[in-house]
Amino acid sequence: xxxxxxxxxxxxxxxxxxxxxxxxxxxxxxxxxxxxxxxxxxxxxxxxxxxxxxxxxxxxxxxxxxxxxxxxxxxxxxxxxxxxxxxxxxxxxxxxxxxxxxxxxxxxxxxxxxxxxxxxxxxxxxxxxxxxxxxxxxxxxxxxxxxxxxxxxxxxxxxxxxxxxxxxxxxxxxxxxxxxxxxxxxxxxxxxxxxxxxxxxxxxxxxxxxxxxxxxxxxxxxxxxxxxxxxxxxxxxxxxxxxxxxxxxxxxxxxxxxxxxxxxxxxxxxxxxxxxxxxxxxxxxxxxxxxxxxxxxxxxxxxxxxxxxxxxxxxxxxxxxxxxxxxxxxxxxxxxxxxxxxxxx
Length: 345
Hints:
Number of strands: 17
CATH architecture of the largest domain: 3-Layer(aba) Sandwich
Strand content: 25-35%
Mean pLDDT: 93
CATH superfamily of the largest domain: Zn peptidases
Order of helices and strands: HHEEEEEEEHEHEEEHEHEEHEHEEH
CATH class of the largest domain: Alpha Beta
């Protein structure tokens, strides 16, 4: 699992909030050696392509979203503090006293300002602060701050990955750099093997607010089928058991009306055949992932969903198990190697 960990730690060091994914040269460098061609499209998706060993092979698209949750500067006040709005996915409950990075004229460290408990009444301490009451301190005067930061500049959490006990890791943006690491690991496993399919990989933009990147990739690449890799809720203190899975469960294979029964059935069959640890994740209606956008693109695409259990989603201290990521990587490698689920007529 060392490769997976190395991929994950490097990926989580990138600052790529939704809509601002174009600074992802480091991610593209990880993908390029594992595919025959690699490029960035207009939406900001990073696309990789491995050619099939046989002519007229069908196309399989693997998708994992590239973007992370973020904030956006809305104004700079007379004290040099940055006021901000939610760019995608943040809850105010996890922000006070957080370290952040502001992607201004240059990358700037900052902290989400918070009052010491000595200066807050007991009544006020019981109430969560809304985003509108929070500011970011970058240590500059108003005049200096306005030279370095502009309204509209993005902000992300500043948090390195750390190893916890065993195979567990904590850090920011594991949603969904873990999914990208899984795809890189699967590609690395298959790098010297001839493939029975045309394989496309999309590290897609904009999932946290719309899924537009995955939809554009599916429209342009016209796959016969697709599999999305994302995260799902992991069990932790206070998490409803019916909405989460224990870390260490393996690959969570989605079952939903929007997902293809053929692709899902093949994933389940391969997991059972090759003894890949897995659980079934039942979802009503849509999945809340890029699966929804891809399934409805063009004339419809047969889509499957494989997810990794994750604790503390959309925070700076998300927790994941590398063993679950490896289970997902192994399952995808088997799926690719046997040529997918959809057969040409």
